[in-house]
């Protein structure tokens, strides 16, 4: 019987379990056994694994997080530990390693291919949606919806008390979440790292809202732009004589990464998993699953290395048109 290995690596996100389920059940359909390594690369090094079958992935489609767990593993940067991981994989007669992860996870796993010839298959996941080579990554839709629901609640208080509120969302190097959430919540200002706004422009927009007799405003801030706390302090000081009221802030943090995946993430994760196994069955090697222009396709794994995807300027312009 053929065997494949499976890990979830990097930060958790909704939809991982749906993808695990899809890989395992598709493999089972084609008579392949799936070996799930616990805690990503850590499990590879320590040979910590479990056999995943049809029954073991029952009831996980709607669950957040990952049943395989995930962890950071700095030891994997050293050749001796990568060799140990490879030896563990080969001792189990595994033909290919499926990695549900992001850019960094793909690069780490690719070393196993480069150094030892292991077939590595990447399935993209990250709430930041910034993996180069694919227009969608598992977890993004749920993260946007989580943030949107939180901001909708904050907006009720903001309107009732006629306040300006800065809401910080995830996105250290990427503004995709902020951009989508800003549009979905009708934010007055959206700040993303790819297209930064000067401080004076932010102030002008706040004053414009005041002039329009708009008693409240929501500023959606990607964490890669600035700290919400620091920006609130700066704006409160600079606008203290402008009668705009107190500017408050809220950091959404890890709430965006948890919870049950949306229908879209469940469906995309399932399709990605099925596609990955079927391409493997066709003999394709060392590829990543990608979503482009409405189609799921495969691309060389290394296409994602050293780059990140950035939002389309047109999307940002639409956001600006709909805001202040």
Helices and strands in order:
Blueprint: E1 3-8, H1 16-29, E2 33-37, H2 41-46, E3 49-52, H3 79-91, E4 96-101, H4 103-116, E5 119-124, H5 140-161, E6 164-169, H6 176-185, E7 189-191, H7 199-211, E8 217-222, H8 228-238, E9 247-251, H9 263-281, E10 287-292, E11 295-300, H10 313-322
Parallel strand pairs: 1-2, 1-4, 4-5, 5-10, 6-8, 6-9, 7-8
Antiparallel strand pairs: 2-3, 10-11
Which short descriptors sum up this protein?
Rossmann fold, four-stranded parallel β-sheet, 2 domains, 324 residues, alpha/beta, seven-stranded mixed β-sheet
Number of distinct helices: 10
Helix content bin: 40-55%
The coarse silhouette is elongated
Distance between the termini: 61 Å
- pLDDT below 50 for ≥5 consecutive residues: which ranges? none
CATH class of the largest domain: Alpha Beta
- Main beta-sheet strand count, sense and barrel state: 7 strands, mixed
How many individual β-strands?
Answer: 11
CATH topology assignment of the largest domain: Rossmann fold
Please report which band the strand proportion falls in: under 5%, 5-15%, 15-25%, 25-35%, 35-45% or over 45%. Answer: 15-25%
Q: By helix and strand content, what is the structural category?
A: alpha/beta
Architecture of the largest domain, CATH level 2? 3-Layer(aba) Sandwich
Spatial extent as radius of gyration: 22 Å
Strand sequence of the main sheet, in spatial order?
A: 3-2-1-4-5-10-11
- Mean pLDDT, rounded to whole units? 96
Element-level helix/strand string: EHEHEHEHEHEHEHEHEHEEH
**How many discrete structural domains?**
2
